[in-house]
TrEMBL record:
Identification of the protein by name: Cytochrome b561
Compartment annotation: Cell membrane
Pfam family, one: Ni_hydr_CYTB
Membrane-protein topology: Multi-pass membrane protein
Length: 224
């Protein structure tokens, strides 16, 4: 683990940053493809998003320290205490703060729910169906299709809240949260420890598992 004097330390590993910016790119792109009838691309991008989500969940258990759920998921008391401390000055948080941790869980959960709905959605008579559409009945597929369209508004609301929080920290707290998510590093006072990395093979294994799951789903989830 990095323990440096006042200066720049590692905060986010490459895997976390790739996932973060891929999510930021995929969500508006998938909205555009759906709105413009590019359903072939919409479904391909949906499978890519599924692979990234599976990887990010695995990385939340086996990744570097700040990527792990155990590092940033805190109880309600910690979240309330953090909100109360916003009016005061405090040292930069290494990783997600208690409130940001729950924001990450909400966004990941919403994206997973949206993708799962999409996998079963569609109408075979229109020629646009998710790869798991034939595993459910017509009425169930119709319900999931409607939810897939309407729940997107919930996802956008969570994204908007996320962006608003970033803007708050930038304007009010004078804390740029975007730059560390690009560079992976940030300046901290002396004594604060940076992110603890893990061997690269863990990322490779997680990526292979994620791609295998995505390919299996894309193939219609045949019996193993």
């Amino acid at each position: 683990m990095e323990n440096a004097p006042a200066g720049r330390v590692g905060i986010w590993d490459l895997a976390v940053r790739i996932c973060h910016w891929s999510f930021a790119l995929l969500i508006p792109t998938m909205w555009w493809t759906a709105e413009n009838g590019e359903m072939g691309w919409h479904m391909r991008l949906g499978i890519l998003l599924l692979a990234l989500l599976v990887f990010r969940v695995l990385w939340g258990f086996f990744g570097s320290s700040t990527a792990r759920f155990s590092h940033f998921v805190r109880g309600p008391g910690a979240v309330i205490a953090y909100f109360k401390s916003l009016s005061q000055s405090h040292d930069p948080v290494i990783g997600h703060n208690p409130a940001g941790g729950w924001s990450v869980l909400a966004l990941l959960g919403a994206m997973i729910f949206q993708v799962v709905l999409g996998l079963f959605s569609g109408d075979p008579f229109d020629g646009a169906t998710g790869p798991l559409n034939d595993l459910v009945g017509v009425m169930t597929a119709d319900t999931m299709t409607d939810l897939h369209e309407s729940f997107f508004n919930v996802l956008i609301a969570l994204v908007a809240l996320h962006i608003a929080a970033i803007a708050f920290y930038l304007v009010v707290k004078r804390d740029n949260l975007v730059h560390p998510m690009v560079s992976g590093k940030r300046s901290v006072p002396a004594g604060l420890k940076g992110n603890a990395p893990v061997p690269a093979w863990r990322g490779i294994v997680c990526a292979v598992v994620a791609m295998a799951v995505a390919y299996w789903v894309w193939s219609g989830a045949p019996p193993l």
